[in-house]
Specification:
single chain, mainly alpha, 5 helices, 82% helix, elongated
Length: 179
C-alpha cells in the first residue's frame, strides 16, 4: 500500500507541480492570459489527481484478491492526494519566490477591475483596495500562503479520492484481466 501511495503520489505531484512551474512564466510573459488561470490550474490538478483513481485501482487489482473497501480506497487516495498536494505547494513556493509581486499585482488589479466594470462606487473600490492590501500583507506569511495553496488542491483530491474509492469498491468496475 505504501509503495502505491508513494509512487502515484510522486507522479501526480510531479505533474501538478511541473505544470505550475511550466505555465507561470507563460502567464508572466503574456502568452497565457491570467483570466484563464483558474481553468488552466484546476484542469492540471484534475489531470494530475486522476492518478488517485489509477493508484486505488492498482491496489484493488493486485492486493486482497481484487477487492477493496470504500475506507481503504479512500485512505489510499488520501495518501496520494497528500503527497501530490505537498509537491503542488512546493512548486507554488518556488513560483511565488520568482514572481510573487507580479502575481499579487495581477490578481488584485484584476479583481478591482472586475468590481469597477460591475459599477462599484469609488468608496466601494477604496474598501476593496484596502482589503486587497491587507490580504497581500497576510499572504506574505509563508504559513498563511501554505494553507491557502493547500486548500486549492486538497479538496479536489478529496473529491477524486472519494469518487475513486466508491467506484472501485465494486469488483466488477473496470475489472483487471487477471481477476
Amino acid at each position: 500500500m505504501k509503495k502505491i501511495i508513494i509512487t502515484y503520489g510522486i507522479i501526480a505531484g510531479l505533474i501538478t507541480g511541473g505544470l505550475m512551474l511550466a505555465t507561470m512564466p507563460l502567464f508572466v510573459n503574456g502568452t497565457l492570459k491570467t483570466e484563464n488561470g483558474l481553468w488552466i490550474g484546476y484542469t492540471g490538478m484534475v489531470i494530475a489527481l486522476s492518478l488517485v483513481f489509477f493508484g486505488v485501482k492498482s491496489f484493488r487489482d493486485h492486493h486482497d484478491g481484487g477487492k477493496i473497501t470504500l475506507g481503504k480506497g479512500f485512505l489510499i487516495g488520501l495518501g496520494i492526494t497528500l503527497i501530490a498536494s505537498l509537491f503542488y505547494v512546493i512548486a507554488w513556493e518556488i513560483t511565488f519566490a520568482r514572481s510573487g509581486e507580479w502575481f499579487m499585482q495581477q490578481w488584485s488589479t484584476g479583481e478591482l477591475d472586475t468590481l469597477k466594470s460591475s459599477g462599484a462606487t469609488e468608496a466601494e473600490l477604496q474598501v476593496a483596495k484596502q482589503k486587497w492590501d491587507e490580504f497581500g500583507q497576510a499572504y506574505q506569511n509563508p504559513i498563511v500562503r501554505f494553507g491557502m495553496t493547500l486548500m486549492e488542491i486538497f479538496p479536489v483530491g478529496l473529491l477524486i479520492s472519494l469518487l475513486s474509492a466508491a467506484l472501485l469498491r465494486k469488483k466488477e468496475f473496470l475489472r483487471s484481466v487477471n481477476n
